[in-house]
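Quick start: read one record
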Amino acid sequence: MSVMDWLARQRARLAEVPVRQRARLAEVLARRRVALGFVTAVATLVLARPTWESWVAGVLIAIAGEVIRVWAAGHLEKGREVTRSGPYRWTAHPLYVGSSILALGVVIASRSVPVAVLAAIYMGSTITAAVRTEEAFLRRTFGDTYDRYQRSEAEPMVRRFSLARATANREYRACVGLLIGFALLALKVALPI
């Protein structure tokens, strides 16, 4: 069975699950995505077969993803408004866009098909869940303001990037995780184990 066949079967199964159960599952996945990310990271380190060439290509892509995340975090006033500045002018979820690019960098650096499959499953399930729960929260909290933003009818806001805001949004944790992860992959290249 191919990965695409497996994903199609999983999607068909999910369609059979009642809406309330799917919402609950999305909440659980969204809440546990960091813990699941650590498990995925450990599996990635075990399954990775990096070379210096794949590591360099992967780290450059991952850094681009983290730059997008920092840019987004430097504009985000989480839970207090519908942010419409910085990258939020173009996409509703720039943090997840950055995370997806970062994950692509890890996959490239790892040079492993099992890592690619694992990353696709992890990112596809947790980001989808996080987007659903966050959009439900924003719609409940901000109502029509969020709906107008989703339809690209809201006025953009003028706000400068703030490193203090990015720090308050704890984006430094993703930066540290990126450094540690790529240091461990480099160690795996240097000391093939």
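The chain has one domain: 3-190.
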